[in-house]
Design a protein that fits this description.
Blueprint: H1 7-35, H2 41-68, H3 118-132
Protein name: DNA-binding transcriptional regulator of glucitol operon
Biased composition (Low complexity): 74-95
Transmembrane segments: 9-29, 41-60
């Protein structure tokens, strides 16, 4: 239980109370606006308490997770190998805990009928002319 009274957890508890009070206060404000004739405020009057409930849900889930976990000094990280019964230093794994994604080079597909597109070839010539003449305007293209 002492794990829930560290400075980081005290900030979380205070943030939860402030957020829940703020959401419920905004919900009450929307109820008073709805009672004054603003019809759309009825939806917001329902929405703000739902937000407050979500804050409580996340806070409660984090509290349960902290209480179920081991103390921080002997906690095992998610990628660490299982502890062995043999005494002595553990061997270092060559496999990293997080692997990099495999990159696949994609080659553009050839046209289905095998014929070159004349408009595409002309456009590519135009783009290469613009690249070769950086100060030119598109209206200066001779082709």
């Amino acid at each position: 239980m002492n794990r829930l009274w560290t400075p980081a957890w005290i900030v979380r508890h205070v943030a939860m109370v402030v957020l829940v009070a703020g959401c419920l206060g905004l919900g009450w404000w929307q109820v008073t606006r709805a009672a004054g004739g603003n019809a759309i405020s009825f939806g917001y009057a329902i929405e703000w308490p739902v937000f407050a409930g979500f804050v409580i849900f996340v806070w409660w889930r984090e509290v349960r997770q902290a209480l179920r976990g081991k103390p921080a000094d002997d906690a095992q990280q998610p990628g660490d190998p299982a502890p062995s019964a043999a005494a002595g230093p553990e061997p270092v794994d060559a496999v990293p805990a997080v692997r990099r994604p495999v990159r696949v080079v994609r080659v553009p597909a050839a046209p289905a009928d095998g014929a070159d597109d004349a408009e595409l070839a002309a456009y590519n010539r135009y783009l290469s002319w613009l690249n070769a003449n950086p100060g030119a305007r598109p209206g200066d293209y001779p082709g």
